[in-house]
Amino acid sequence: MAFLYGASIQGIQGFIFETNKLKEIAGASNLIEWFVSKQFIKNFFNGEEKYKILRNAGGNIRLLFEDIQDLEFMVKYFPKYIMQRAYGITVSQAVVEYEENCTGIEYLDKVEELERKLIYARNKAAYPLDARFNILKQCGRTGKPLYEIKKDTEYDKGSWQKMADANDAHFELLLEKLAISDNLFSKFDIDMENISNKKNKIAIIHADGNKMGLLLQQMKNSLLKQNKNPTKIQDAYKTISKAIESATIEAVKTAYKEVFKKYEEDENSENIPFRPIIIGGDDVTFVCNADEAIEFTNIYLKKFEELTKKNFEESVKEFGLKEFENGLTACAGIAFCNEKFPFHYAVDLAEALCSEAKKISNREDSCLMFHNVQSSYFIDYQNYVANELTTKKEKYKLQFAPYYTNKIPSIDAFLNAAEKFGSDDIPRGKFRTWVGEVHKNIEYAELFMERIIAVLDKEQRRELNNALNKLHEELSLQTPFVNKATPIYDIISYLSIRGAKYE
Predict the structure, then answer these.
(1) Contact 254, 299 (CB under 8 A)
(2) At residue 492, does pLDDT exceed 90?
(3) What predicted TM-score, i.e. pTM, was given to this entire model?
């Protein structure tokens, strides 16, 4: 007899992103990474490995037990072990029993039963340890019971654990995951203002792989056809999970080296404006200098697709995963905002942009969408597009995204267009005015564009037309809309993020 154990950490997003202090965000993300690490689980059992790890990523733990006493110990004490180290999160857990000599079909049925039980467990009311008792003094920043005051700053228990985690050995787990040299850790700043660009803008990047559910379903069907036993099935899922995680980490490493390595080598650079927040499976979140975000994301998406193709070679052959012989694609959302903008709103926006990119691309191609938050309050991206980026009468759109890695409109073409429109001799202010005129009257906007073209010399017109044409063969200054959408607003918005002036 054997037992499948599952645990899911709930409230991860709220735990990590409920603050604007980057030190606490980094501390929280490293705590979550630590909780699912092999060493943390091993420490729980006092160094003894009385289990087999099936999965440990993204706040999820799946273990195999053969001894019911070890299982009972895990169920009774593990949630408390985690929750006391991170006030504000809760842990859901479930167990299923199966015969070790069962068939592959029976085993996979048990796996599905475990996942269903975890869903039920997550829907049950949970009571975090930092309940808000009226008899306790409240922390002004979070509204939770006050735990500590340091340098005139109030901390609740969870915030203190995140902040104090900076002194623990596992604080830089995510940097270690990216093979960053220890002597560089101090250059990864923990203050938002030291990560932002000269316009005080930061970027929150969220990327997620496409068609993961389809991949796992195809693999399951293949395993059933091949009548694999439970051990072989466990090994197969571990292999594919490892292939994805390895591709994710290596893709981040590559993008980091190509974009942020210059900050390591620059003697005048005091910090590296980049922080990994979540790296779990195919799901990643970063905060970085706004100037570098699109280039970093472009490299990451390309490399992720390339590496998953390479890592899947054996699995594609063994399990007949023909749809994935070219690897996984991924979509990303980038929220550009002021360094003081509420961080959880920016993360929600980045995730909404990622979801929109998936929807428009049908999860077929790697692509990204971005948005520049210019107000102090922003929640609903869809409403913003409908109300601010779409003309009322003709329904022309000032949004051309998503931009793709391998088809038009491409990210490379967009960056090229931004470079051309950002030249000092280009009247950027007039293009910004044109964007405003589109909202008022499309006919007048056409006349205004003619005036812009008239003040450009022949070489300027040629360069800008070539840049637009690379985005789409029908685009030019004379025809700035294709399918009632234009990239000019995106270009002007991106230039504004990077500090362009509009005379």
Answers:
(1) yes
(2) yes
(3) 0.91
